[in-house]
Amino acid sequence: MPKTPSIFGGACIIASVCVGAGMLGLPTSGAGAWTIWSALAICLTMIVMTLSGWLLLEAYKHYDIRASFSTVTKDMLGNTVNIINNLAVYFVGGILLYAYTTASGNILDGLTSEFISFGEYGGRIWSVIFVLFFSFFVWHSTRIVDRISVLLVLCMAITFALTISSLAANINLSTLFDMQNPDGNYSVYAIGMLPVALTSFGYHHSVSTMRAYYGEERKAKYAILGGTLIAISLYLLWLICIFGNLPREQFGPVIASDGNLDVLLNALGNVIESHSVKQVINAFSIAAILSSFIGVGLGVFDYLADLFKFDNSKVGRAKSWAVTFLPPLTLSLLFPLGFLKAIGYAGAVATIWTCIIPVLLARKSRQMKSDNPFTVCGGNALLLFILLFGICTALFHFLAMFNLLPVFQG
């Protein structure tokens, strides 16, 4: 009799999908809300994202154990809605590749400027080098991506642990709770953090994989919960360590650059005396970006290969590589938006497949008869809450973009 997969193993899969370069944008997006309100915003997002994943499981119970997100959406909601959903998934993947490409170029330019200087175009030249070199792994095969990803996750785990332990030892409680500014207004900035927080819990395309992995909904439900709990624990630990070391007012230059990671790392480096700690933080940031770049790149690569019916030959994979990596790279070179702004766009559009579509699928599912009793509690009130959360999160991003919401400037 085959051994049943552990809940912890599935939780780690979900956590690895969530945790990546997106978490690097959390401190800057939460600088206005600061520690307590940022924590509340992330916790609320985690709860909603966990429940919306469970709603997908509820809809999937009517289908074969290996049915995909796209298959179920197309059958329940029609081809038009499925096309919109797939385009939203592709857009988020594309904008994330764009963000990682831009961020990696700026960080590498800063790290190598003492040895190699490309002048004012340094960041863009390093972006090109980064994409051409690391996208080769995606073009070569999924197998090599698998092996590289294991190394990157291991590197990210080690450097994250070293970063956290180093920063935690220097946490200043006065800085962490902004005690030098007792009359500060924090709550009004919390809603502006939601799009970035939502991006950090975008595991929903893996829900069908979890269901197939366990062969049932109940264990998949607990694996999803375990994964989001691991993710939020790491996010809160990261925020506490950053906010405990870098004073709130020093986020001004980072925010002015639209959250560019090289500016954040420089600001953090200025308040940390140890050169080795600075190097570890840089190593963690690069490992997180590279891990996410390869993971997201492979997902978009496979999606576009299927969409355009490119075969798996070297020529076919070259075509898939071109449509996957060249558009984000070109846009990054021509219109280099800040990291935080790009992540915000991803979060706004991701509300379609993380909130709105799961609600519509669950509502449709409850109109169908099934012998499977798996149902998410909360009734229509829960569906309405998740739907409104998704719509408001997207709305908050665009309102902030046009300066119609309070925006913290540092």
UniProtKB/TrEMBL annotation:
Keywords, sorted A to Z: Amino-acid transport, Cell inner membrane, Cell membrane, Membrane, Transmembrane, Transmembrane helix, Transport
Keyword Transmembrane among record annotations: yes
GO function terms (MF aspect): aromatic amino acid transmembrane transporter activity
GO annotation, cellular component aspect: plasma membrane
Key word DNA-binding present: no
Transmembrane regions listed in the UniProt entry: 7-28, 34-57, 77-101, 121-139, 151-171, 186-203, 224-246, 280-301, 321-339, 345-362, 382-405
Gene Ontology terms: biological process: amino acid transmembrane transport
Physiological role: Involved in transporting aromatic amino acids across the cytoplasmic membrane.
Protein name stated in the entry: Aromatic amino acid permease
Species of origin: Conservatibacter flavescens
